[in-house]
Amino acid sequence: MILPEIKALGGQLIAVSPQTPDNSLSQVEKEQLTFRVLSDNAGLAAASYDLLFDVPDYIQKLYQNFGINLAEYNADTNWKLPVPATFMIDEHAIIRSAYVNSDFMKRMEPNEILAELAKL
Known about the structure:
Elements: H1 3-8, E1 14-17, H2 21-31, E2 36-39, H3 44-48, E3 52-54, H4 57-65, H5 70-73, E4 80-82, E5 85-89, E6 95-100, H6 110-119
Parallel strand pairs: 1-2
Antiparallel strand pairs: 3-4, 5-6
């Protein structure tokens, strides 16, 4: 975890999740996370960054076959998820760096995060 390096550079890590506040809190406790996790279960923040997508029917069925009811878990009747993204936002609320990839398996690498943060 690069959290100490992020803090040393004057940054902070904040995760935004589509989960309900209770489910987000459970995740924080279960994973023993030491950073803030905010709940965006209505998808307003993700929508404002144009990151929401409709989960296709065949994926919904796959989730349901595994006993996952995303709509219930996120307290939203719409089956929508945010595209994973990483934003570097400065103290004036200006986005200085952004990484978005529709492949949820591909995320911004920790060394890239630190390099971008060092530029701020």
